[in-house]
Amino acid sequence: MPAQLKKRAVVENGGDNAIGPGLAAALANGEDVGPIVRHMFESGKPEVLLHHLRNIVKNKETEIEELCKLHYEDFILAVDELKGVLVDADNLKSKLISEDSRLADANVGLLSRIEEMIELDAVKNNVAGAILALKVCIHVTNLCLSCNREISEGRFYPTLKTLELIEKDFLHSIPVKTLRRVISKQLPAIKLYIEKRVCEEFNDWLVHIRSTAREIGQLSIRQTATSRQRDEEMRALQREAEEQSRTGSTAFNEYVYSLDSTEQAEEDLVLDFNLTSVHRAYHIYSCLGIGEKFRDYYHKNRLMQLNLDLQVSTMQPFLESHQPFLAQIAGFFIVEDRVLRTAGGLLTEDQVESTWDTAIAKITAILEDQFTRLDTASHLLLIKDYVSLLGVTLKRYGYRVSPLMDILDKSRDKYHELLLTECRKQITDILTNDSYEQMVLKKEYEYNMNVLSFNLQAIDMIPDFPYVTPFSSSVPDVCRVIRSFIEDSVSYLSYGGGFIVNAYEVVKKYLDKLLIEVLNNSLLNIIHGGAFGVPQAMQIGSNISVFERACDSFFLWQAGKLCGIPKRIVERPHSGLTAKAVLKASQNVAYNKLLYLVNDKLDSIMAQMSIINWTVEEEPEHANDYMNEVLVYLDSVVSTAHQILPLDALYKITIGALGHVSDSIMMAFLNDSLKRFNVNAVAGIDIDLKLLESFAEERYHSTGVSEIGKEATFMDCLVEVRQLVNLLLSNQPENFINPVIRVKNYGALDLKKVAIICDKYKDAPDRLFGSLSNRNTKQSARKKSMDVLKRRLKDMS
Known about the structure:
By secondary structure, this protein is mostly helical.
């Protein structure tokens, strides 16, 4: 059992007799007797413990005495030896003392030298320490001088690196407290000075960049405009090349070679503006540990500048200020984009996008307000064009410009309404001031300017000069207005060299509106309200026919060309203008007006029939005067119409005029003022009618009307009066009653009209002794037949 357990067992047993051996064993073994002592004191028996301890001491003393007795001799010997050692030690001590005295006497000078040497070594150490401290101070002082020099030179970044070196490596090791305190005090002041200086430079840059932002924006927008013009020219060349390829022109290969050889890549001018102050300021602030402060300062000041830039000047019209205003905005965001890409985190994309969203909301509101104030299409187009260039310019820098395009789309109808209003005024003035006389072109350049430029030529070759056009001066003038309208419309629908979706269809819609609501209505107003004669009415009809042809040959082609639509698509069936049919209808109105005027003139001439001697005694040998005037007038009308009107219109006017003459002759027979007529008067009408028929037949073939395939000829409109004259001159007019003969020879005559006219017919001339004429027999037979016809017609009615 271990000793610890034995002690515990002895203590626990508590026997007073057992304490002594256990305590003795514990002391013998060098064990801790604390538990035994504590137990005895706790049990109130310290005397017992002392008793046992005394017994143990006595026992040990007894053991020592016995041990001494046992080794007594050895102990005596040891003591003797010890005494001998002491004697030897005393001898050695005396020798050492003497030697020490001798050495001390010998080294007195050496010790003084050693002391001097120790003092010198201390001085040396002090001097070395001073030199080291001086070197540190000199180095720090040099660094401070370097800082001052760099600050005076404006080299703030090296200054900050020097300050950082002083602060980290030397400040705490400077041995001179005064110098250390001065430098510690100046470090923050120098940093603050650098911050102020850099901030001042940045503020100067803010002022400078705002003053140059407009120039930056203008230069960039000019580059965009140049690029757009170059792209448009290239697209035009490509379209021409495609047309050459489609038509299989022999010059196509040479044309393509020319296209390739002249093509060259033009690099845009690099926008050069200095951001050194920004980069430097941000870097210095970052080195100072206040980069976030500079970011906030930059963003705040740039927003303030933007708010100032977005203020529209009230001192001048927006038309004059819109370019500087928009160029300033463009320059601002071009600078922001460059800062975003090069300043290393000074701006974030979210900040730039947020700033742009704020700006574009303000810009669109300004544009919407200003567009509502404009009342001139050219002004709106000018602003729109610059806005579209702004959009294309900023789109290249990644900005979202769709709101700008949306505001332009919203203003499209307003722009075209303004454009239509201007065109309406121009076209009305042109049509009102036109003399409606054919143009006489004396030079080839006049022909090119007024005919070829609008594709109005009737033949492909250059005519001889002077050349008389089939239209008046208002036609090329109106074509110029319409061409300008198409160009302005296409220009509005083009955004930076491209077009909106379905631009061609949009242009067609507005072009139709112009041709129908403006041109056609103006023409109708002239037709219905104008006080003009037959030549003017004929010229108006000719002009309308030219406009109607120009819908396909020029107007639609011009729109397709400017919109970049291939010619083959423009020429597709059912892709034309609605205005073409409307103008075609207006042609009929013009021709009806012309025919009305012609018939009115014919009525004034035919009124001379009232002075005809309807009971003339002798059969006339020549035509009546009215017919000569009628033929002269019809000849002039048909000749002029043949020169300027289409064959369909010529046919309509001629057949209408001849029919009107025929009706007028019929009305002369039916007129209540005519009480009677005889055969001689009818013979005179027959002469008139033959001349008219000869004129109709000749003109029908000479004008080329016979080739257009009309069912009725010019002679057909004279059938009624011819059949009437034939009936009145017939020797057997009663044959009219025969249905077969009537259908064959008198099918155009009306029974009632024939009855009225025959009732006025008196075969005998109105003169004394007329019954003695040698024609009595012939006239008697005709009279009897006419009487039979009259009776039968009365019976039939």
